[in-house]
Structures are given as C-alpha cells and as structure tokens.
Design goal:
The chain is mostly helical. Helices cover 57% and strands 5% of the residues.
Length: 460
C-alpha cells in the first residue's frame, strides 16, 4: 500500500461479532501482503504515468470477485478476487485495468459521496482476529470509519470506458517489461459471465461487463505487444501462493485451513498457513513451534517475527512478545504497523523506560500515519500513564479527529489546550483541531475570559 494510504486508513484492533454484510465491507491491513502488491504494481502505475505514491490500494475483506477504482486515486481489491487470481500477471492485469480507470478519470463522480458504506476495519498484523482465536479480551477497540470511506460504496463505471481502461492497462504492463496476457486470460476465464443475468454475475462483471467484442478488441493488440511472451516471475508466483495462504489462514476457519494445507504439504505457504491456523485455534505452543521452525530457516524475515510477537501478545505473554516485535522492527524499520505492534507490547510494562520507548515508536508511526486511530489511542494511554494530561488529551483529540468524530475531537482539543504550554507545537495543534471542529477566535477569547474569572484569587 502507499504511504498516502497508510496516512488515511483507520486501523481497528478487534474482531467483534458482526454481520456478513459488515464483514464484507472491512479493510484488511497486513504489511507483508501490502508490500508484495506494491512491489508488483508500482512499476506498472509509473509506466502508466501515475505517481505510485498517490494511488491508494485497499485490501477489502470480501469473498466476492470484485475490484474498483474511485476518485481520489483509490483502488480496492477484494480478497475473493485475489484468491481467484491463478497467476501474478492475472492479479496485476486487474490492477493495471483499474489504474487505467484512474488515469482516464473514468470513475463515476456522482453519488460516490453518499455511498453510506460504514466498513469495519481489521488488521491481521495487529491481531484483529483475537476474538475468533478465543481471546476476546485482547480486542481493544473497534471504531466506525471516517467519512472518507463513504466513497467506497456506490461505485459505478461507464461501460463504454472499459475498453479504454483495458488498453491503457495492457500498454502499461508492456511498458513495464511485463506481459499483458494475464489481463486477457483473466477475462477469458470468465467469458461465461456474459450470458448470465446481472443478478447472477460476479460483482466485478456487473460493473465491468464482458463481451466477445471487448475480449477480441483486447486480444489483438496484446498478442502483438513486445513483451507478450515474457514468462511469469518465479518469485512472484511464490509470493502469490504465500498471499493466498495467509488470506485463507486468517479469514477462513482453522479446520478449513488444515484441510486446504494438509500436513503432508511441506511448502512454505502451507507451513505458514498451518502456523496461523494453530494460533487462531488457540494452540499457542504448536503455533510457536511452527513459527520458530520458519524463523530458523529465515531469521531475517520480519513477518515471521511479527507473527511470533502477535501470538505471544494475544496469549497474554506481552513481555515475551516485545523481543519478537523489536526484531521485526529492526528488520523492517519503515513499517508503521510493525512499530505499533512493538509499542502495544511495550505498553503492558510498568517500566517508565518501556513506556517512553513505546511513545517513541508511536510518535514515529503517527508521522507516517497521521490518521491512524490505534496509534493515537495507544499514545493517549501512554501519556496518561506518565501523568502528562495535556498530551494525553491531545492524543485523544487526534484519535477522534482521525475517525471523523469532530465534536469529540473539538472537546478533547479544548481540554488539551488548557494543559499545554501556550505557543508550543502541541498547543498550536490543539488549537487547529478545535478550529476544525468549529471553534472561532471569539469562542477562544470567551473561554480565556471565563478561565481567568474562575481562577482562584491569590492573596498578596
């Protein structure tokens, strides 16, 4: 995912009992999967003439085969579509096609603002499946999304623009030195959708209707492209298998994972999936043993250390989780979610030095993700433990602000303002949030006069 995406996503830390519809509208955060997809897609987006860091890619927890692009250069990939992709080039072909919609400014602008989607946000990386794993107390908070996410619903495309997006995506793939045949093959695999009624079609092919003409119009130029016969990247093939394993292991019931990845399968994806499934099944020691075997083979893999820390933390063994999370950060120090993991484990300590280190991690993460509510909530907790009332309330204001709860943000900011040094950067930020919440200069003057009048008199 992009750095800009990391600055707008709301991260949740619990998996509550929610309806299938709500679960189908959730956003998954996972540093490993995000990094792989960005590594694949950024050169293609660049070849298309887009700035990769300006394109947001969301991973949507929904089993349906669907993807979308909407205004703000936002792209979404459903887990169902990711799992359906048989090769990296098929998945990358869909990404390139959606990039074509963004580049061509095809996304429907009317109605998206009023989509009304209220997604629940989950984070694999932060142990959001704690409840499902039998540790409901590990879930800390679940927050409604900010208004930003309202743009995700009601996504429509102008059908006449599908062919244009196909060709733009195919050309970008070729210009990036890749074959566009994955895009063509993905459409060919679902050619049968053309004869279905709209109600029976996969969601992707309702908004992206297929036809023989469309496929043939794409086939001719694709087959003439210079990189048409470029083979699949073996590393990407292995990475797609790992992505599939991780998504299935976190989102499907453990027993299903064990059936899909049987003990006789000793491939890395299968062993990774079983380790996650044992963790989710409450078999902590078995999960740790499996993870330790993975680490022994690749001790510089930050995601194995991340998973080890997650398992320990959610088993109530935070002190043991700290070194694992610290190692994951050491190996990948530019990942905000890994820093937040580390901070969360540190905050279970009563040692002030651990609290200060947690705050250091959270301050770094909040710069990279200034609208990440979990970072702000943990920061508020940490400042509260240290008795820093002003900064604790400012962090609570940032938390409310990041989720679009402007009234609460304003109230916390006003309380923070009274306890921060006038003119300090924190005081200025509290003032800014309060003004964003509708407080005027006249209101501030009135509050200051009231505070002076309420101040206790001093005898001289």
């Amino acid at each position: 995912m992009t750095r800009r995406l990391l600055a707008v996503l709301v991260v949740a830390f619990a998996w509550f009992s929610i309806t299938d519809a709500a679960r189908a509208q959730s956003i998954i955060r996972d540093t490993e999967i995000e990094s792989i997809i960005r590594d694949w897609s950024d050169p293609v987006l660049d070849a298309m003439g887009l700035v990769p860091d300006d394109v947001t890619i969301l991973l949507i927890n929904d089993p349906s085969i669907n993807a979308f692009a909407t205004r703000g250069q936002i792209m979404g990939l459903h887990t169902g579509l990711i799992l359906e992709a048989e090769t990296p080039l098929e998945l990358l072909g869909v990404i390139a096609h959606e990039g074509g919609h963004i580049k061509g400014r095809h996304v429907q602008r009317d109605g998206a603002q009023n989509a009304g989607m209220q997604p629940f946000l989950v984070s694999m990386a932060l142990g959001a499946l704690a409840v499902a794993a039998g540790a409901p107390d590990a879930g800390a908070v679940l927050m409604a999304s900010s208004p930003w996410f309202g743009t995700i619903g009601a996504l429509q495309y102008l059908q006449s623009q599908e062919g244009e997006a196909d060709l733009m995506g195919a050309r970008a793939l070729n210009d990036a030195g890749l074959s566009a045949r994955g895009l063509l093959r993905f459409f060919e695999r679902f050619r049968f959708q053309e004869v279905f009624s709209d109600q029976r079609r996969f969601p992707y092919f309702r908004s992206h209707p297929l036809s023989d003409r469309r496929i043939e119009n794409l086939r001719r130029p694709v087959e003439r492209m210079s990189n048409y016969n470029q083979p699949e990247n073996p590393q990407w093939v292995a990475e797609l298998a790992l992505i599939h394993a991780k998504i299935r292991a976190f989102l499907e019931p453990p027993n299903q994972t064990f059936r899909t990845y049987r003990s006789t399968d000793q491939s890395l994806p299968a062993r990774y999936a079983r380790a996650i499934a044992w963790y989710r099944d409450g078999q902590t020691e078995r999960a740790l043993s499996a993870i330790d075997e993975l680490i022994a083979e690749d001790e510089d893999n930050p995601y194995f250390w991340e998973l080890r820390g997650q398992v320990l933390f959610e088993a109530g063994r935070a002190a043991e989780a700290v070194p694992a999370h610290a190692r994951s950060v050491e190996l990948m120090n530019d990942a905000p979610l890994l820093r937040i993991n580390h901070a969360h484990a540190l905050l279970q300590s009563s040692d002030p030095a651990d609290i200060e280190l947690a705050l250091s991690e959270l301050r770094w993460a909040s710069v990279e993700e200034p609208q990440n509510p979990l970072a702000w909530r943990l920061m508020a907790d940490a400042y509260g433990v240290l008795g820093d009332e002003g900064r604790a309330r400012l962090a609570s204001a940032e938390l409310a602000y990041s989720t679009g709860q402007m009234r609460q943000a304003r109230d916390f900011a006003l309380r923070a303002r009274d306890r921060l040094d006038r003119g300090s950067p924190e005081w200025v930020r509290a003032m800014d949030i309060a003004m964003q919440g509708g407080v005027t200069d006249e209101d501030f003057q009135s509050l200051d006069r009231r505070a002076r009048n309420l101040a206790p008199a001093h005898n001289h």
